[in-house]
Amino acid sequence: MKNGIMECSVCHSKLVSPSAKTISRAYDRHKSRISSKQRALNVFLVVGDCVLVGFQSILVYMSKVDGKFNFSPISVNFLTEITKVFFAIVMLLLQARHQKVGEKPLLSISTFVQAARNNVLLAVPALLYAINNYLKFIMQLYFNPATVKMLSNLKVLVIALLLKVIMKRRFSIIQWEALALLLIGISVNQLRSLPEGTTALGLPVTMGAYIYTLIFVTVPSLASVYNEYALKSQYDTSIYLQNLFLYGYGAIFNFLGILGTVVVKGPSSFDILQGHSKATMLLIANNAAQGILSSFFFKYADTILKKYSSTVATIFTGIASAVLFGHTLTLNFVIGISIVFISMHQFFSPLSKVKDEQNGVLELHDVHDKQRSKESFINMAAGANEEATHRVGHDERQPLLPS
Fold it and tell me: SUPFAM superfamilies recorded for this chain (predicted)?
């Protein structure tokens, strides 16, 4: 490699060395050529995510008694991680039984140790998710389920910024406008969402709510982007093996949280099943399924798609909470939802996509200086001249086999 340029050892073609920006743009081009099987997977992921995310806020609301939780939220998160670890082990055993002859065994010690070393970065999103899962319960003390879902949609904008800064992803102007529309829709729905005069943690509820909202939006957004990076950077590793590490780290962090609660509140708080009900058991199962589905989003689909699919769950959550708990579907909610759906259509519209030709031109400007651009032009001119000498005449276009 010389001056950021690699030369193919076979055909001696000039290639730009891979970078975070070129890899990201290659992924964007790959998305435009996805197969029907991949589209079917995306549809399944979106539908499943809508159902699970929609039910989550409702189950959390059902788990409250007189507006409070009789159980430790950390215990729910710990049991959720244990459930996901058990699922990952079962799927690994099933996958190992169907391995082909000659493939590297999944359950060997060497494979496990090597995968553990390569996927150590999964500890970072696991820690962030442990913090975020606790914040989900705190947010339920401030807002009704529909509003919690609308606030969580703020993560889309934060994730887009993180993808642009960290992974050098590119978004068109139309897509940024779609994200701006999303913020407007959320803001419209958020009007008058907090009862006047309510207080929490010794602060005015608006101040406490804004602080928790800021953390609630930033922490999981960073976790999602980092999780996608960690999963895709070790793409050849089985997703169930990666999940085993991710959920294992999550269980460890939540168990440390339980130990911290024991130190503060005493040994009685070590009973992780205290205060649980059928609603909390359903909540644990739902959270586990949602976490498993998210890992498939991050490895085989896209973080933006994951968050937009959660946006679709907003209308389901709003209607369900109105039917089950008598929450009123205000005009603000209806208008906000309408704007959100317009934003989704605009963001994923083919007209908003960044063209491949633009990617290639901008990539040359980003990588080459004037001298290397001149050399590239000379090479292209030479290639065009060579192609002209190989143009076939009328006779040469006859069939190769006799008719």
Answer: Multidrug resistance efflux transporter EmrE
| Predicted TM-score of the model (pTM) | 0.69
| Pairwise CA distance, residues 259 & 121, whole Å | 24
CA distances from 248 to 127, 261, 298 (A): 11, 20, 18
Average pLDDT, integer, range 326-351: 84
Q: How far is it, in rounded angstroms, from Cα 399 to Cα 403?
A: 8
How far apart are alpha carbons 327 and 270 in whole angstroms? 35
Nearest residue to 164 (alpha-carbon basis) of 305, 366, 307, 21: 21
Average pLDDT of the residues in 336-347: 86
Q: Is 310 helix (H, G, I), strand (E, B) or coil?
A: helix
Residue with tokens 């603000």: 332
**Partners of residue 2 on adjacent β-strands:** 5
Residue 74's contacts (CB-CB under 8 Å, 6 or more residues apart) are 134, 254, 257, 258, 261
Q: How many other C-beta atoms can be found within 10 angstroms of the C-beta atom of residue 94?
A: 10
Please give the sequence-ordered ranges of beta strands (E in DSSP) within 195-289, or none if there are none. 199-200, 203-204
- Measured distance between the N- and C-terminal CA atoms of the chain, rounded to whole angstroms: 50
Determine how β-strand 14-16 pairs with β-strand 199-200. unpaired
Domain ranges of the chain: 50-195+205-363
Length reported for the chain: 403
- The yes-or-no verdict on residue 320 having pLDDT over 70 is yes
Mean pLDDT of 93-116: 86
Phi, psi at 201, each rounded to 5°:
60, 25
Q: Let me know: does 76 contact 279? Beta carbons within 8 Å.
A: no
Instruction: Decide: helix, strand or coil at residue 12.
Output: coil
Q: Report pLDDT digits (tens) over 240-273.
A: 999 999 999 999 999 998 888 888 888 877 888 8
Evaluate the CA torsion angle 116, 121, 123, 126 in order and state its sign: negative
pLDDT at 149: 60
In whole angstroms, give the CA distance from residue 9 to residue 15.
Answer: 11
**Contact between residue 209 and residue 151 where contact means Cβ atoms under 8 Å apart:** no
